[in-house]
Specification:
It is built from four helices and three strands, in the order αβααββα. With 94 residues, the protein is mainly alpha-helical. It has a single domain (5-82), classed as Winged helix-like DNA-binding domain superfamily/Winged helix DNA-binding domain (Arc Repressor Mutant, subunit A, Orthogonal Bundle), CATH 1.10.10.10. Helix 1 (5-16) packs across helix 2, helix 1 (5-16) packs across helix 4 and helix 2 (23-37) crosses helix 3 (43-60).
Amino acid sequence: MLADARRRYALAYLRENDGEASFDELADAVATRERAERPAAASEDVALSLHHRHLPKLEQVGLTERTADVVSLTERGGSALETLPGAAADPADD
């Protein structure tokens, strides 16, 4: 589940920001972090993949929750990066 860097970036951003963020804020933050590694990462592409692919998977396993426009880290999600072997606490360290 957390082998995907985009999912790790999203969880790390939520953890760094008191456990929640608006969807747009989260998408912008993930795109900004990816641009540091891949300058071609487009914000719109990141937002679409978060909305349709990554956040639903994180919700399905109980790591995040979503309401209208807010994405929240669950208690389980808050500890996921530290407890999974091979998952960096700071995805930027990858």
